[in-house]
Design goal:
Layout: H1 3-13, H2 19-26, H3 35-40, H4 45-53, E1 64-69, E2 74-79, E3 87-91, E4 96-101, H5 104-131
């Protein structure tokens, strides 16, 4: 993200974004088009602005700012009203939030772990396909 993108997000959110978030987004650490890029730590200005402009209620979080989702029932948030760099997960089915990561670095490590797991699964699938016998069409 550019400085202009950050300013647009801050204007839409009505608050300054924390330095830990803006520094990460300016130097985005995950590959373009990855699950992290599209979901876990959204790197899409239009998508983030859409989320800000259509805010949902997240009880118990002072000034929620959506940073990503799991692509399903969970939303990942930071609290712009808090000095703590914690990440919360809000379960839309349960209507409640819990702490996802005590600090920003822990969250980034969790995201990297998910990407590593996806890569390992893709390699294992490719290996199974490469090693199957001609009659093993189910592999």
């Amino acid at each position: 993200m550019t400085e202009s993108d950050i300013k647009q997000l801050e204007a839409a959110a009505g608050a300054a974004l924390p330095a830990f978030y803006t520094t990460t987004m300016r130097n985005y650490p995950f590959p373009r088009g990855s699950f992290a890029d599209e979901f876990l730590l959204m790197n899409d200005l239009d998508g983030l602005l859409r989320e800000i402009r259509q805010p949902a209620r997240y009880p118990g979080i002072g000034k929620p700012f959506l940073i990503g989702t799991d692509g399903g029932e969970e939303v990942y948030l930071i609290d712009l009203a808090s000095a703590q760099p914690q990440v919360f997960v809000y379960d839309m089915e349960k209507g409640a939030h819990t702490l996802k990561a005590n600090n920003w670095d822990d969250y980034l490590q969790q995201v990297q772990s998910v990407l590593d797991e996806i890569d390992a699964d893709e390699r294992a699938l490719a290996q199974r396909k490469a090693n199957k016998r001609w009659w093993e069409f189910w592999k």
